[in-house]
Structures are given as C-alpha cells and as structure tokens.
C-alpha cells in the first residue's frame, strides 16, 4: 500500500464548503487534510467521498460481485449495501457465502444483509429456506450489516411469530432492518415502522414517502433498470437531507456500464439541489445508518474517495479504496485475475428443470366471459389487473386461449426450475412482441423460468434455451430457422462469472433483439424478471398460478 499526497478542491461535507486542499494518505488512512493558501498550485479536480449504493441486488446485474465492482468503481462507487436475497432463494446459505467470498477477492467494499424472506411467499416454489436460526447466524457475521428488506409487511402488522423473531434477532444484535412496503400508509405504516423497520425503497409517490418520513423512516430514492422513482421523490431531498439515500435496487449490466450513483448526483444537482445535500444522500447517510467501514474524508478515516472533473456531471477521474487507486488498469487486471481463480473454485447453482414441449403451454378456454391479464408498466414493478373478453384470446381456436399480437396481449409462462412440473400459464399486456419470445431464469423472487411470447412454439424454444444452459436469458425470433440469442448465467441461474463488459455487450445485443421483435419497454428483460414478483401488487404469475397481490392469494 503506497503513501501519497493529492491536491484538489475538497468538498468538505462536514463544514459544507469547497476549498483547495492537500490530502496526505499513509497505509490506506487519511493522515492530514491541509487547506491551501490562495495562489497555491492545485490540481483541477474535485475531491469527494466515494458513492454508495444503499440498496442493491448484485445478482440483478447478471454479474458476480467481483465483476459488478469492476464496472461500478469507474463511476465512483466504493461500496454497496447488498441484499443477497436472490441467490439465497436459489441456493440458501451457500449462495450468501458465495457472494461474500467472491466479493472478498476485490478491494471493493461489499456489505451484505441477512435475507429476511426466503422463500418470499408460500405461493411459489423456491430453492431454499432460511429459518430464524439461519438468519441469526448470518446477522452475527462481520460482513452482514443488516436484516434485508422485510417484504412480509402483513406478517409485521399481524405479528407473525417467525417474522417477529427475525426482527428481534436484528434488534438484539444492533443491526438495522430494511423495509419493503409499497403503498403502505397511515396507521399501518406507523405500526410497520414502530416494529423496527428503518428504511423503504418502494415508495412510488411523494405523498407515500412523506407519510413514512413523518414516522421517522429513511427513504431510499431508487433508480434502477426497471423501477425508476427518482423524478417522483427527488424533491424530498431539499427538506429531508438526513433521511434520504440513493439506490439502484436492480441494475442490468448495460446500464451499469453507462453509470451508477454518479448519474443520480448529476441529475439532483441539475434540479438545483444543494451539492452537500446530494453528497449526504449519496455518501454520508448510508455509512452512518448501516455503520459501514467507509471513509468520509476526515483525518483518521480510511482513504475512500474519488476525484471528479466537476460537480455538475461528476465525471470520475479516479476512485480510491483504502488508498488504492482501483481504477488503474493494472489494479483492475490483478483484481480480475484474483476473481477468476476464486469463482471457478466454487460455483453454485440449483437447477433441475426438464425441457418442455409446445403442448405443455396450452391454456384451455373455459366458460368464463373474461380472462385476467397482467398489465406491465414501463419503469415500474407494480402492475395492473385487466379483465379482457375471452373472445380476444380465442380467435385462432375456440378451445384454447392464445396470444393476440394485434391487441398486444401475449401468453406468459412460469416454469419450475427446481423440479419437473407443469408450467403455469397466464396473459400479459404491454410487452409489444409481434413475433418470437423472451425467457429468463432471473425471475424475482424464487427465480423459476419466466417467459413471454407471441406463440407456443416460440415460448417453448426460449424456455428450453434457458434450461439447456442451466440458467440464462434467451430471445428467439419465432422461426425454427431464424437466429436466437442466449446469455448463459451458470452461477445460480442468475449471474455470469465472465468479464463484466463482455456480459454487458451480450446483454445489449439480446435486449436489441427483443426490441426488434416489437417490445417497446425500455428494459424488457428487467420488466420480465418482475412479473413473478408476488410481493408487489396487483397481478403476477408464479409457478403455482396467477396471483392476486391485493388479496394475497392465488386466483
């Protein structure tokens, strides 16, 4: 570890002023910060604390932690508050340990949570269960800083014994508890927060967020590849700077290449929000709330900071973690080599699905006049329920319900990945495909295979491509002789251990193919991955059938 000094315009979040300064680093620690006199030579750069993603599922990047970090540091991110809920639903404790071990091959600062809801619900088939003892064992680990998002808010409100025991374990160990309560307001929000839940990243409106802020909750402003709440919530940062953080939640590899928390900082400053309030949300609040071992540009802190060209666009010149300039090419190369050695030693997966046939995807017409249809909403995890005339879906054959591309109502299927079982079938609007199909083993929360297609043959082909790879995302054009693309995700059926930039390029290509087939969604595969997420209303599909999120029951 080298000793060095660096000059620039220091953005001091504690004194709330920017001034020319020299920083001296020894053994990874900031030993001195000296203001420079007027006229002194100063590098044309700004020195800021490193950015922190305050809530992210690394798995949604389709990259293992080491590769996620390589892409994130170039945008000034030095740490994440990472919820390993996805890999835990697939592989249990072994999956969480894989994430910790892989992250430890890098200088990046990953801080993990203990997943609170594995499985997420009883209305889907997951690959693992984490009971109270498992959760408490994770919470006792140094790398585990908090209890991950408590999605079972009805369990909190009705004081389910298992839910309350997990919350009690976190409180006993002095670790924060993350929330997940979309739409919860008023007295119920108050009860949820009083149980010990300290954050929420699921607010869709400013009114909902204000309700929760009023009761003392911290609000995470989320801007990911599918769910985007920045525009609705950013105004809150003016008046509540101590209670706001930034997060991505779920970010696909192509959008991670483009930017991370740096983009939210630039957008916030462009809206006239004070620089130091922005840095408080992006850098300071996560460290204080989750008790992270991340430096904040004080003497004696770890040397975790970034150099940027300006404080409007936040274009990153260099990122330092524990005094190591991690954005140097030679450091990135060493880091990549260490990760590859580790990841090849201990891959994890849980995939036992069998290939299907087109006839397995038939949906019989019945005598009911309407069919429930999921309405996907671009940029949102929430969906609507539509009840459409059955006649719209029986134009080709009176005995079977089929996709209707003219009305943009397509068949959706969820196939159990953990053991052979009949697919669950439903219908969905707003995917826009005119031909072909998409499939993915990234399907929150249980990560069975979810697929949408214009016809049964295409659906079958896309699903079987994923099964053949033991996990991945696929797109086929609807013609047996036409091209298809698949991105294999052999780590848990969720992640690739290949070079992150190469995975991003492959994902960009398959995303483009989906849009060539007619999808108008900004991120069709990310949206697809949430169509089996039962804990977000209103209508979703699990491997056990269509699910009503308002009644919290299978239809």
Structure commentary:
By secondary structure, the protein is of the alpha/beta class. The mean pLDDT is 94. Strand 27 (545-548) and strand 28 form a beta hairpin. The strands form 6 sheets. The protein has an 8-stranded mixed beta sheet, sandwiched between helices. A 7-stranded mixed beta sheet has the order 3-2-1-4-13-14-15, covered by helices on one side. Helix content is 29%, strand content 25%. It contains 17 helices and 28 strands. The chain has 2 domains: 51-292, TIM Barrel (Alpha-Beta Barrel), CATH 3.20.20; 358-554, no CATH class.
Helix share bin: 25-40%
Mean pLDDT: 94
| Overall radius of gyration | 24 Å
Shape: globular
**Structural class, please?**
alpha/beta
What CATH architecture of the largest domain do you see?
Alpha-Beta Barrel
Question: Biggest β-sheet: count, sense, barrel?
Answer: 8 strands, mixed
What would a concise description of this structure say?
This protein is of the alpha/beta class and 555 residues long. The chain is built from 17 helices and 28 strands.
Task: Give short descriptive properties of this protein.
7-stranded mixed sheet; alpha/beta; 8-stranded mixed sheet; globular; 2 domains; 555 residues; TIM Barrel
List the helices and strands and how they pair.
Elements: E1 4-12, E2 17-26, E3 29-35, E4 46-49, E5 51-56, H1 65-73, E6 77-82, H2 85-91, H3 93-103, E7 109-114, H4 132-139, E8 144-150, H5 153-157, H6 161-172, E9 177-179, H7 186-194, E10 199-200, H8 206-214, E11 218-222, H9 230-233, H10 236-239, E12 244-247, H11 253-258, H12 261-270, H13 275-290, E13 305-308, E14 316-321, E15 324-325, H14 329-345, E16 363-364, E17 370-375, E18 384-389, E19 400-401, E20 409-415, E21 424-429, E22 437-440, E23 449-453, H15 456-468, E24 472-476, E25 484-488, H16 500-516, H17 524-529, E26 539-542, E27 545-548, E28 553-554
Parallel strand pairs: 1-4, 5-6, 6-7, 7-8, 8-9, 10-11, 11-12, 17-21
Antiparallel strand pairs: 1-2, 2-3, 4-13, 13-14, 14-15, 16-19, 17-18, 20-21, 20-23, 22-23, 22-24, 24-25, 26-27, 27-28
């Amino acid at each position: 570890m080298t000793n060095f000094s660096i000059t620039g315009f220091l953005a001091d979040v504690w004194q709330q002023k920017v001034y020319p300064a020299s920083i001296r680093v020894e053994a990874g620690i900031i030993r001195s910060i000296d203001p420079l006199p007027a006229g002194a030579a100063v590098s044309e750069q700004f020195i800021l604390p490193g950015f922190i993603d305050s809530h992210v599922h690394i798995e949604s990047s389709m990259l293992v932690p080491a590769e996620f970090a390589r892409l994130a540091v170039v945008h000034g991110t030095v740490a994440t508050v990472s919820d390993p809920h996805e890999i835990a639903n697939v592989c249990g404790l072994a999956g969480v340990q894989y994430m910790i071990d892989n992250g430890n091959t890098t200088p990046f600062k990953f801080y993990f949570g203990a997943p609170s809801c594995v499985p997420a619900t009883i209305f889907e088939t997951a690959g693992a269960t984490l009971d109270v003892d498992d959760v408490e064992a994770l919470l006792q680990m140094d790398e585990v800083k908090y209890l991950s998002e408590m999605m079972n808010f009805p369990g909190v409100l009705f004081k389910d014994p298992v839910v309350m025991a997990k919350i009690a374990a976190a409180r006993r160990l002095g670790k924060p508890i993350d929330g997940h309560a979309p739409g919860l307001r008023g007295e119920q929000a108050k009860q949820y927060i009083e149980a010990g839940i300290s954050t929420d990243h699921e607010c869709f409106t400013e009114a909902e967020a204000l309700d929760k802020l009023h009761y003392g909750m911290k609000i995470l402003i989320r801007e990911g590849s599918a769910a985007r709440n920045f525009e609705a919530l950013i105004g809150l940062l003016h008046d509540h700077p101590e209670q706001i953080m930034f997060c991505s939640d779920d970010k696909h590899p192509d959008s991670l290449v483009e930017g991370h928390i740096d983009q939210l900082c630039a957008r916030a400053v462009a809206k006239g929000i004070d620089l130091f309030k922005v840095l408080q949300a992006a850098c300071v609040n996560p460290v204080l709330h989750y008790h992270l071992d991340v430096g904040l540009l004080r003497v004696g802190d770890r040397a975790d900071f970034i150099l940027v060209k300006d404080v409007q666009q936040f274009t990153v010149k260099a990122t330092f973690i524990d005094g190591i300039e991690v954005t140097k090419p030679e450091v990135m190369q060493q880091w990549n080599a260490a990760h590859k050695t580790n990841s090849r030693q201990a891959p994890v997966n849980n995939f036992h699905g069998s290939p299907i046939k087109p006839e397995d995807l038939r949906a019989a017409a019945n005598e009911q006049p309407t069919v429930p249809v999921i309405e996907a909403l671009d940029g949102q995890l929430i969906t609507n329920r539509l009840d459409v005339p059955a006649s719209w879906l029986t134009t080709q054959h009176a005995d079977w319900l089929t996709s209707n591309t003219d009305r943009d109502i397509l068949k959706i299927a969820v196939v159990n990945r953990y053991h052979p079982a009949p697919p669950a079938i439903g219908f969905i609007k707003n995917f826009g495909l005119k031909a072909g199909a998409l499939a993915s083993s990234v399907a929150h929360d249980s990560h069975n295979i979810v697929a949408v297609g214009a016809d049964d043959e295409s659906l079958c082909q896309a699903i079987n491509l994923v099964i053949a790879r033991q996990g991945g995302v696929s797109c086929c054009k609807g013609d047996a002789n036409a091209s298809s693309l698949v991105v294999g995700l052999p780590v848990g059926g969720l992640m690739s251990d290949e070079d992150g930039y190469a995975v991003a390029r492959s994902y960009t290509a398959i995303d483009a193919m989906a849009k060539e087939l007619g999808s108008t969604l900004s991120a069709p595969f990310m949206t697809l991955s949430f169509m089996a997420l039962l804990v977000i209303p209103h209508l979703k599909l699990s491997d056990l059938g269509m699910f009503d999120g308002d009644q919290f029951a299978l239809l």
